[in-house]
Specification:
Elements (H helix, E strand, L loop, with lengths): L1 H21 L9 H38 L6 H34 L2
Helix pairs in contact: 2-3
Length: 111
Amino acid sequence: MKRKKIKSDLIAIYVMGVSIINSKTVLAASDASTVTSKVNQGLSIIQGVLTGIIVVVGVIAALKVIISKLPSLDDPHVKNEMWKSVGTIGLAVAVGGALVWFIPWVYNLFQ
């Protein structure tokens, strides 16, 4: 088990290192509009990554609920409880994903 953890950590460090080395960095911009467009592009990428993380966590949570309720799914009460849990997780994922995009939009309205 410990070897798997070390192996996965090494793979993550390698991927981060290669990503950092291969990324093109701009140290100076010619004008303010270039900086603004690059910042907006970067923030858009961050929003996409955060949305992806929220979706992945939601899928994992839903799978955990489904797998834990699967052995006793013949009972209608357990089936109802499972679907309520999966629906709540879906709602939480939708709200979380929307907030990632909605909060910056509202912030830009008042600037």
